User: Fold this.
Amino acid sequence: MNKPYYKNLQIVIFICLFSHISVAIGLTADEVVYETTQEVLNRLEIDKDRLQAEKKYIKIIVRELIMPHLDFDTMSALALGDNWEILNGGKQACLNRGFKNLLVERYAHVLLSYRDHDIYYQTAKPIGEKDYVSVIQTLTRPETKSSTIEYRMHPDGDSWKVADLLIDDISLIKNYRKMFHKEIKLNGLVDFIKSFKECSS
Assistant:
């Protein structure tokens, strides 16, 4: 059942991928995504002149408003699979930082490529076990194919955190897991870890 949320966006909507999750007690996951999407879009509107003049500023927005609300422990463990348990705490920590920086680079680039979309939100639905829910956004624009963004989230204290993201049914985590496993098979786990500058010292 679609919720009656509708927004005609003038700047960037792809920021909704990892919208700033500033959660008040009692908000459902879908309400969190909607409310915080508006918060981030307002920031982009206010700072639009700076965004045009200062190319790196989008990365600051990504780090401040998006990255703190991803569950990087879960995301890193899922992306590394069985290799994650082999690593000691220090290596896990540096790979967490490396994975975070990788996502900052990726999404700082794509955030500015989506404009003038309308967004529809679906009610959060339980998936699997461990209290995970799925929140789906549908993005539409005249004369283009609709796109979907699915947030897979779980409760974390009084808030919700994103553990995976599916864009048009393609999982972010599965994509990285496939890429990481290929690199590990080719170069070995030690060299794979060293390929992250955060782990090279």
User: Anything to note?
Assistant: Residues 1-25 have pLDDT under 50 and may be disordered. Strands lie at 2-8, 118-122, 125-126, 133-140, 147-156, 159-167, 170-171. Helices lie at 29-46, 48-53, 57-66, 72-80, 83-86, 89-110, 172-187, 189-194. The radius of gyration is 17 Å.
